[in-house]
Amino acid sequence: AALPASAATPVIATPPAQGLGLTTVAGGNFTLSFTARRATGTGYAGHTRTYTVESTANPANPASWQPVTGYTNLVGATQTSNITGDDQPVIVTMPETNSIQFYRLNVRVE
To answer: Running DSSP on this structure, what letter comes out for residue 89?
Structure first.
């Protein structure tokens, strides 16, 4: 999701089950949100679901996606001692900039 620097009206997007939501907030910041879920079900025993928020100014270049500092390798709910419950909301607060930036959520099962 890209947020133009001129966005003045709050916009709220509800993410799908494994999507990345976007909300603008006052004070020159915006938030990205998603739900960190644990790896469950048939075939997932012993596996961990991890999440990394990535950003780029050029989504057409696959090599340009970079992890957002502080939001890499987040472990899904109930798979670590610091996250409890089946659905753990994660909120990433980012400063608004004068350039267009794109964000995605990289989800892995390891």
So the answer is: E
**Can you give the length of the chain in residues?**
110
With a cut of 90, say whether residue 62 has pLDDT above it. yes
| In contact, 68 and 90? CB cutoff 8 Å | no
Q: Is 14 helix (H, G, I), strand (E, B) or coil?
A: coil
Percentage of the chain lying above the pLDDT 90 cut:
15
Q: What Å distances lie between residue 48 and 15, 39, 105, CA to CA?
A: 22, 6, 16
pLDDT digits (tens, 9 = 90+) for 37-47: 878 778 878 88
Q: Taking a C-beta distance cutoff of 8 angstroms, is the pair 11, 4 a contact?
A: no
User: What is the model's pTM?
Assistant: 0.70
Tokens representing 19 are 């999507």
Cα(56)–Cα(34) distance, rounded to whole angstroms?
A: 18
Q: Which residues contact 83 (CB under 8 A, 6 or more apart)?
A: 36, 75, 76, 77
Strand pairing of 21-25 and 74-75? unpaired
